[in-house]
Each structure stands twice: as structure tokens, then as C-alpha cells.
Design brief:
86 residues; mainly alpha; 4 helices
Amino acid sequence: MSRRSWRGWIATAQPAATGSSMAPDMARAEAQVWAIVSERLRDRFHGEAIRPAAEWTLRAVAEHRLDPYTAADRLLASLVDPRTPA
């Protein structure tokens, strides 16, 4: 979903204002969803198919051979295209 269509979906999905702020509900929803995404990503990296690449990448960061941001980008790319080295 593009950012533009995502914004449109959010605008139409929001309930009519009832006088109370939606900010706490949105903050709670955001925290819940991102926690689930994080947990599921972690589970995928512990899976048999990608575990060796994830372990190599973490070791490279621990040994200061790879910076953590590059490591994260490589791991995420390896989920999208398994031929991408982590």
C-alpha cells in the first residue's frame, strides 16, 4: 500500500470524533502492532533457513566488522530476497 493510499485509508478508517482523544488508543495500538512485528521478525531469523546468516551477521557486529545499522538492513533485505547475503 502506498503512503498516499495508506493516509487515505487511515483518514476514512478513523471513527467520528466523540469529544475524547484517540491519541492514547493510537499509541497503544502502535505499541502492540510493532511489538508483534518485532517478535515475528525475530522468530523468522531464528528459523532454520536463515539462522546461520543471522548468527554470522550478529557475530560480525559483535566483532566490530559490521555496523549494526548495516547489519539490520542486510537482515531485512534477506527476508525480502533470500538470495541477498546477510
